[in-house]
Amino acid sequence: xxxxxETTAHKLYLFLMYAFxxxxxxxxxALRPVAAVPxxxxxxxxxxxxxxxxxxxxxxxxxxxxxxxxxxxxSGIILEDDEATAYLAALGRKLSIHSENPGFNFTFxxxxxxxxxxxxxPGGYIGANVGLFLASESESELAGVMxxxxxxxxxxxxxxxxxxxxKMSVPTMAAIxxxxxxGATTDGSAGAAAxxxxxxxxxxxxxxxxxxxxxxxxxxxxxxLADAGFDPYGMPMFFEKLQKNSxxxxxxxxxxxxxxxxxxxRISEATTRAESYPRVRDHDELDFKLIQAKLRANNxxxxxxxLADVQRYEGKSGGASPVKQYEFGILLSxxxxxxxxxxxxxxxxxxxxxRIAYRLALARTLTAAxxxxxxxxxxxxxxxxxxxxxxxxxxYATTLLSSGQSMEAYTLLNEVANRNPSNPxxxxxxxxxAGVTDHPVRTHTAMAQYYFLNGYTHQAIExxxxxxxxxxxxxxxxxxxxxxxxxxxxxxxxxxxx
Length: 498
What we know:
By secondary structure, this protein is mainly alpha-helical. It has helices spanning 6-31, 58-75, 82-96, 130-135, 139-154, 157-163, 170-181, 190-196, 200-227, 234-245, 255-259, 264-274, 286-299, 303-314, 322-334, 338-351, 356-368, 372-385, 390-402, 406-417, 424-436, 440-453, 457-468, 475-496; strands at residues 107-111, 118-120, 125-129. The protein has a three-stranded mixed sheet with strand order 1-3-2, with helices on both faces. Strand 2 and strand 3 form a beta hairpin. Helix 19 runs parallel beside helix 21 and helix 21 runs antiparallel to helix 22. The longest helix has 28 residues, at 200-227. The protein is flat and about 70 Å long.
């Protein structure tokens, strides 16, 4: 992708460090009513099977993760691409069911930044930068990084970090927590600077602790990678590629190298571990390549120039491979050559009728050309093939709203809303459809959920109070709304204490 400025990547890092610091304070607040002892002593908390369970229970970990995710959404750094996010989530699920905790409920999301990085937060929330996706030459390389982040969570590195901090002050632990979660262990990196801001007496112990975390995440991650059917060499190959190219980056290496330092010894150890598993060479990567092409095409700042270059070197077809043609079609659509884009997407769809990427691309192209009737036909047919698939439901509902079919959109969204309580875009669309179709209670409750998921607790409460004033409410509806207001007001008070 066309690189963003160094300042943007640094701001992203600073935001994450700030979020983790707030997270630590939130944890102290959450633990305060549980432990009838000073905050520096957690001995009275129950042991849930390992030492890390003495500080953060799995339930608290998940609650902190949801809190962390609301901050991430509020920052606006998440990439709003449902198809790419769904692919990443599917890849993550394939890995996680072969991890050391196959029943854990992970959440995967993409960060709209072209630097190469990934990170694991509390509660199973794992973020990957668009730059990491585009820098991966194979699905196994991307899967290797994701397996590494999954291992950070299954090995409870965050909880173990808290278990290791009994004598630290709040500011010290807040700074160290940020560095641990981001895997920062090298001098000169932004993460090391965060560590250096902490008390010097605790510094070396925490650096060693984070290095041990990285080593363990490599070991466990490679096993997960192999067990899930990916090439176990994916992880060391990606590390080696970054290490070889590190000299090309000058004084600002990729963020991944700052937060996940790659040394020759680390590459050697990862390669040795990979050698103990059979190598996978015949792996279907078309879905990965298509999503990668979509991200790349949408990331160009000057799509007209890129399109001209493609036509000059590849001809009017855009290239021989389906991936090149798919990217070519997206570039045509981005430059408002909708009729030509439709021809490309129609051809791809005919060649592989059941592939959802081609169906969605064709429907998007038709929508951009304002051929709503045909786009809706494609979406409806696709939803029959993939019932409940959110990557279809959301653009289908959006197109229904754009074409004036608001009641159909409301019915579609209302049916899936309860099964998808954590999807902000769904609830915003539902609120829009409900408003147009005169469903005031649903309008306000859906908008409240949208605000809550994006970290705006006060606005969520305001929406619920508006819902409470709606006419013809049942006693059950009133009770549910009032209970939710009570919960959010309690949360708001905790947020004010940070």
